Please model this.
Amino acid sequence: MLDSLPLLALLDVAMRGALIALLILLAVVMHRDHPRSAPARVGVAMCLCLCVQMVGSTPLFESLVPRLWQVPLVAVSVGNAVLFWLFVQALFDDEFSLRPLHAVAWVSVAALSGLNCAMVANSASVLAPVTMGLQRGVPLLFAGLAAMAAAKHWRSDLVEERRRLRAFIVVTGIAYTLASLVARLGSPQGRLLGLTATLDVVVLLVIVVVVASRMLHLSSSHLFPSTQQSAGATYPVYPIPASPPAATDPTAASASDSAPPQARAEALAPPDPVEDRLAQALQRLMVEQRAYRSDDLSLTSLAARLAVPEYRLRRLINQRLGYRNFNAFINGFRLDEVRAALTDPARRELPVLTIALDSGFQSIGPFNRAFKAATGLTPTEFRKENLANS
Model:
């Protein structure tokens, strides 16, 4: 049978086989190395669903297999738009967690596309223009949501390698989604045929090769949050060292064991006088001048106050102090001040909201979420528990 296939069809099959093999490899590696990580879980699901998409969108499969048999494959393929949005959120937002609403979104999109494939497409139903229009709008909607999710955390992301991968995934992912949608809208019955189908696979293969090579070579600390962070300890507070601790000091060695991996690696490296001065200046700015109380504090404004390039400050906070996100770094200081105020008997009557606003939080919602993530208690519960013992 293969001997009777045209060269282009053979090339298409070969490209799809290579892409499916690579996607399965990537899924296995993510599941093996990060079984409890939300980004890895969504990534595994997306890889496997892309495999289904590659099978279901094969021109021979679409032309020879009865339409009803194609329904589940079409449903999964269209649902990949939702998974791409979730993957962008999970990979670039350290506070992301899967919620029932995410499953509802995927099931809704899959059900809509499955219904269209089984009953509505190419029919005279009055619902056809509506339901088919909704299905065609799904990739646009979730591509836009993915772009918004990536842009939302772009400025606060301290992991340089992840920032570069973020840009590549978002730009190429959105471009591929839009190009594939346009190609299908211009094809008979929404199917990709001939050279167009093969080019679709080749483009996706190139994207996956780049992403896979980067993800397989990046360390876990660069790309995936630790298990502790994923469990909710989103705002750890590590002291800003004036200089790396001496290796011969047993006390310093013991303290470094509890520090994040980047900080431990940095502690073993030779001291950098320039970075030491920057760390000391940051210490003074945050601890003595309490710069974290500023409502509009950003990495850019903090770098300007320290008179250093933004990338140097980002590298210091990430690689030396172990923070992956600028907001987590700032909120660590704010939460320290809040905890001190809540355990002070002299400020027992001071409202929690006043304490939060004085510490730099802009509203009660983000403050409550940050406090609960860091302590496991609400501010009121924390105050009662600590003041009861004083």
The chain has two domains: 2-229, 250-388. Residues 2-229 form a domain with the Rhopdopsin 7-helix transmembrane proteins fold (CATH 1.20.1070). The CA atoms of residues 342 and 382 lie 7 Å apart.
